Amino acid sequence: MQRRRTLITSPLKWQMTALPVAHPALPVAAERGGTQLRTPRPVIVVDTREQNPFSFARFHGWFSGVEKRALELGDYSVAGHEDSCVVERKDLSDLVRSFTVERPVFIERLRRMSAFPDRLLVVTAALSQVKSRYEHSSANPNQITQSLIATLAGLRVPFLCVETHEMGEEIVASYLYQVHLYHWLEANGHGRRLGDDDL
Predict the structure, then answer these.
(1) Is residue 3 part of a domain?
(2) Containing domain of residue 180, as a range?
(3) What's the pLDDT tens digit per position in 161-192?
(4) CA distances (Å), origin 57, targets 35, 53, 60, 66, 170
(5) Residue 123, domain member (yes or no)
(6) What's this model's pTM, rounded to 2 decimal places?
């Protein structure tokens, strides 16, 4: 007896086949009256204590430089905005450790971050990995996931989960570029919007 051929693969066998495209020449461009504004390129600040830091080398067209020095809080910022912009990066094992063994210290860091106007927690792991059992830890994935949600809802510190180190690098680079751009637009009387009819 001949087996019937399945025409549609079971959703349980589907796999992500995402292939991210190359990053743009610039994350965004500000315009007024149909003319692109000439805006200065920012300098990224990378904390010297950051382990396995983003290099940002491939985004040389976005920034005028990268400085490595000790930041009072967080792993990344924009030169001149260290007192208002903070990005904290965690890989999965670091996130789990931070919400368990080092919980009081990390929660205090998050509380301090919540006072910054521009703040972001970036996790270099997919949310599905955060919610799955951990290979080298007995920590409860539900506790870690709910801690992330509490960080968002209770402390109002937004978080992003990105699948790879490289994707995290691009997201943080774009975020820092745009934070700088919005500050520059406001400081130079252009308002907090990218175009005439934009936000």
Answers:
(1) no
(2) 38-187
(3) 999 999 999 999 999 999 999 999 999 999 98
(4) 29, 11, 6, 9, 11
(5) yes
(6) 0.88
